[in-house]
Amino acid sequence: MKFEPFQLEREQSIWENKVDYNLSESGVHPGTIKSLFDSEFIKKIENTELTYGFTEGSPELRQSIASIYPGASPENVQAFNGSAEANMVAILTLLEPGNEMVYMVPNYLQIYGFARGLGVNVKTFSLHESLNWQPDLDELKSLVTNKTKMICICNPNNPTGAVLPKEMVHQIGEIAQSVGAWILSDEVYRGAELNREECTSFWDLDYEKTIVNCGLSKAYGLPGLRIGWSVASTDTIQKCWATHDYTSIAIGRMSDIIAAHVLHPTLRMETLNRTRDALTANLGLFQKWISEFDSKMRFIPPEAGAMAFAGYDWNINSTKLIEKVREEASVMLVAGDWYGMDHYLRFGYGAKQLDLEAALDRITPIFRSL
Ligand SMILES: Cc1ncc(COP(=O)(O)O)c(C=O)c1O
Description:
alpha/beta; Aspartate Aminotransferase, domain 1; Aspartate Aminotransferase, domain 2; 2 domains; 4-stranded antiparallel beta sheet; 14 strands; 40% helix; globular
């Protein structure tokens, strides 16, 4: 078993804490415990015994998560250390070496690399810029056969920020059901929609072989808690819980308590609205910045998430370009190369507004000089 380097995460691990301005993030800038919570709740955290807690996630947390998905109960939920672990456990639990997966690209590529490392045969279908980063479902249909064990979706999408309309979610569901394939939908950016309407989850399909993964890192702006989850049939959740015994046993006890609080129906929208306010303000700033380069850059604004994915016409490779920006301006951007798409860049625009402004000011002369 050999895993190819996960280039995006590798580069972030090396550089994100070394640069002055990190525009490689895809979520909004997180708050502090003190700024986010009242003193009564902070007392509760202070007085928490640091036990293992519930290895499936506490009943309060699983109830809060279940309430996001109509018809779900806590038995449909397993908590994980980040949606990254939820993705990994889903693959370990549902697939075997030699199985075939059909995978949406561009994409975060964790599932892609992990599944390939396990010996899964991964075929890709594309989101097309010419279709406003939507898929061509005829292309998907042509790839899905009786051998397909799983279709993998990232919705809202990383890096394009595109959202699948409800009809398309159901059409993809029909394609999966026609061959009895699993649907694994990574929905970690759900809730961070700029139009403030939560997009359709694949949970809406009501199809037994659907697993929806999500977490607190992006739309909720709380990556330091490392909280993720899977929502699926009770049988699938039982199996994922058993796999989790081998990966990390349990989520952190403090993270569990904070996550249950943040996701409680009385608080959840407050958190998401904070994200949406920040994204709306910052996207305006970014659009103003990129408009100076519109003869050289193409940009379809994201519908969700803190990522602006832009193509460019300068004659410079995307890795070379982000290295130049990092070395000359101490700003980290994401190279299209890390998605297998040279001549694109991903700008994380979810930073603190002053930092975003300062970072864009610093990189402007470099882009003018290209
Ligand atoms: C689509 C997608 N899934 C999963 C993850 C991992 O997130 P988490 O912090 O929840 O593990 C990321 C991180 O960027 C992501 O973009």
